[in-house]
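Title: [Solved] Fibroblast growth factor binding protein 1 3D structure

Original question kept below for reference.
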Amino acid sequence: AGDSVNLRVKCENQEARVRGGITDISCEYTGRPESCQEYHSNPKGFWKQVARALKKLQGRLCGDERALVRTGMCK
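Solution (posted by the thread starter after getting help):
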């Protein structure tokens, strides 16, 4: 039901830039928002929740493969 949405995230480590080391990492999250009933009634609210989830995961994005981007409206 619905197409996949791919979200690419690029993280930049400012401290590593000063100290040396890996400065940039990137990863990709894939989801199917169309498969969520609530997405259809409030897509703007869905993306707002995605943005909040990404903010909560700052520092773990791309570094922890168990870090999932979840929304409260689609469980």
